[in-house]
Automatic annotation (TrEMBL):
InterPro entries hit by this protein: C-type_lectin-like, C-type_lectin-like/link_sf, CTDL_fold
Protein name: C-type lectin domain-containing protein
Gene3D superfamilies noted in UniProt: Mannose-Binding Protein A, subunit A
Ranges where the C-type lectin domain occurs: 1-107
Species this chain originates from: Petrolisthes cinctipes (Flat porcelain crab)
PROSITE patterns recorded: C_TYPE_LECTIN_2 (PS50041)
SUPFAM superfamilies recorded: C-type lectin-like
Length: 116
């Protein structure tokens, strides 16, 4: 997905969240557009350093609330929970657009790109 953003503009990349306010603004934007139950890729991964999540620019991602999903249907599961199989971060409509970890090869998501 990162390659898609960079193909649009050489300085473009997957989005990273610099504040809780910015994170909320993106979620509001998705809701306002009426895009239910979609998956949106963000620029976070723990690939190569399992359990240590960082953005594409190398800064560490904040963990826990309010960024990551808490699934409690079958018990309490705090995201990310995919171990070595799920290494890419996405906003997941099934989790109210909180972040979840997905397999990086998952093809049904939409990248959120940005550039400075």
């Amino acid at each position: 997905m990162r390659e898609y953003c960079q193909s649009l503009y050489s300085r473009a990349d997957l989005i990273s969240f610099t504040s809780v306010t910015f994170f909320g603004d993106i979620i509001d934007y998705i809701h306002d557009r009426g895009w239910p139950n979609q998956v949106f890729w963000v620029g976070g991964t723990d690939e190569g350093h399992e359990g240590i999540w960082s953005y594409v620019d190398g800064t560490l991602m904040p963990m826990g609330a309010p960024y990551w999903a808490l699934n409690n249907c079958d018990g309490i599961i705090i995201q990310p929970d995919g171990n070595t199989q799920q290494n890419c971060a996405a906003l997941d409509g099934d989790s109210y657009y909180y972040m979840t970890d997905k397999e990086c090869e998952y093809q049904h998501g939409h990248p959120i790109c940005y550039y400075d």
